[in-house]
């Protein structure tokens, strides 16, 4: 098969990418891969050897964005927030969440926002920086009633920038993987 003047051969470990998702071809002999490729319209196929590029391989992984308030801007005396939270506990919880995402086999990023007029544009910039399967919104954004307008700005910015991404909500940074798992699993079943 030829795409853009270059031969495309699908071998074991290669991916067929259609639209956003990729499916690995496993247990397929090289001649079978060639037959599959020759029967697939060129505009629907791009192939990548998974081992050739970590960046390209990352494009096929489930990707999560953990989005929350910069802990330096949070009023931890607010009774709507979990008791005992501090800047240090939030930062440690974010590290735990990122490790849990990795343990699940997901690629992840963390984004902090400020509770001001920069929140919407910052969320859109963060969400557009990669193709995310799920955006987990932190409890500091949605739990305090005084953050209702900020919460609406954040949700609408996510919806505009990544209409296909699932949106999940944590209650603490360290339950973010559970929040994402509820939606990543349901998206794969659909």
Q: What can you tell me about this protein's structure?
A:
The chain has 190 residues and is an alpha/beta fold. 38% of the residues lie in helices and 20% in strands. It folds into two domains: 2-57, no CATH class; 63-189, Response regulator (Rossmann fold). It is built from seven helices and nine strands.
Structure at a glance:
The protein is α/β, with parallel strands linked by helices.
List the helices and strands in order: EEEEHEHEHEHEHHEH
CATH architecture assignment of the largest domain? 3-Layer(aba) Sandwich
Look at the structure and name the CATH superfamily of the largest domain: Response regulator
Q: Provide the residue-averaged pLDDT.
A: 78
Strand content: 15-25%
Outline type: globular
Q: Please summarize the sheet with the most strands.
A: 4 strands, parallel
Q: Which strand order spans the largest sheet, edge to edge or round the barrel?
A: 7-6-8-9
Number of helices: 7
Structure class: alpha/beta
Number of domains: 2
CATH class call of the largest domain? Alpha Beta
Total beta strand runs: 9
Helix content: 25-40%
Supply Rg.
Answer: 20 Å
Q: Give unreliable regions as ranges.
A: 1-30, 33-58
CATH domain topology of the largest domain: Rossmann fold
What is the CA–CA distance across the termini?
A: 31 Å
């Amino acid at each position: 098969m030829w795409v853009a003047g270059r031969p495309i051969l699908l071998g074991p470990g290669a991916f067929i990418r259609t639209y956003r998702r990729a499916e690995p071809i496993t247990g397929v002999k090289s001649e079978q891969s060639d037959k599959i490729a020759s029967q697939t319209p060129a505009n629907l196929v791009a192939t990548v050897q998974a081992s050739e590029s970590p960046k390209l391989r990352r494009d096929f992984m489930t990707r999560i964005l953990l989005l929350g308030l910069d802990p330096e801007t949070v009023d931890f005396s607010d009774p709507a927030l979990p008791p005992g939270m501090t800047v240090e506990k939030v930062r440690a919880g974010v590290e735990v969440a990122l490790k849990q995402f990795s343990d699940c086999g997901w690629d992840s990023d963390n984004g902090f926002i400020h509770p001001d007029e920069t929140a919407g544009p910052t969320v859109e910039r963060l969400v557009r920086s990669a193709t995310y399967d799920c955006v987990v919104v932190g409890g500091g954004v949605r739990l305090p009633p005084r953050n209702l307008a900020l919460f609406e700005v954040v949700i609408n910015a996510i919806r505009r920038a990544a209409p296909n991404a699932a949106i999940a909500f944590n209650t603490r940074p360290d339950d973010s993987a559970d929040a994402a798992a509820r939606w990543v699993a349901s998206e794969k079943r659909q």
